[in-house]
Request: fold
Amino acid sequence: MSFATFGSAMSRILYYLILKPLSMLPMWVLYRLSDAFALLFRYIIPYRRKVIMTNLERSFPEKSYAELLDIRNKFYDHLCDLIVESIKAFSMSRKLAMKMFKVTNPEFLDRYHDQGKHVIVASGHYGNWEYGAVAGSIYTKHDIHGLYSPLSDKFLNAKISESRCAFGTHLVDKNQFGTLIKTLDESRLFAITFIADQSATYAKNVYWTNFLNQDTPVMLGTEKYARMLNLPVLYGGVRKPKRGYYELTYELLVEDPSKVPYGNITEAHTKRLEQEIRHRPELWLWTHRRWKRQRVSADE
Reply:
């Protein structure tokens, strides 16, 4: 048996014997599991603890160590909720998806559809972006297309894609985005979504800005395609009013990209994300080493 075949077999075992059965459990049971995982992360298994604390210390130098610990612990609570909520997506009903994820102002996006316009929506790894993919398309007239990086494990990639697309969302391999652009026409109006806070460690073309008190390279995909296609750019702001409930609100960032200076779009969605993070920092994904890259003369 080859390594690839062994890996595929293990993925199937993981999915059919663990993930799928867990997804059939009611949310209250899954949240009890989440509570147990959070306690493990806090006190026994130091999951990326150093990375998280380093990120928090650099992002919020004005906060005390006790305040940073409180954010870290709340983040572990939220992260474990994300894990069980993502598992639930494998068997989530449309009714439950609409209960747990709501769009507060769908008419804002529909206005562009009625005008015959495609749009670009920027957001971040904030709140529950997985549920945004699962349920976001339910609330809009547009065809929601989300860019993503496929997993190397083809079986799990297919199952995750299946859950994300269950209610109408379309996933587009970021390496095949050019094919999507060629299909743009007035008969199918797209809302193209970008998770715009990925680490830009290896990207050649980045935009440097101050983000969370640090010199930060930001990927230019949102700005690049907004300018290329001259599409309105919206931001999908997310709230978590209580456990298990998320709300997304659309707002306009740039109506006409051709009329604003270069960098304006990237600056706008980055600053908007920073506002959300500062409001409730525990809802952002702090486990990534987002500031490994240092600015050098060639980047400036």
Notes: The beta strands are 101-103, 119-123, 143-148, 170-173, 190-195, 206-211, 214-219, 233-242, 245-254. The chain has eleven helices and nine strands. The mean pLDDT is 90. Residues 59 and 271 are 14 Å apart (CA to CA).
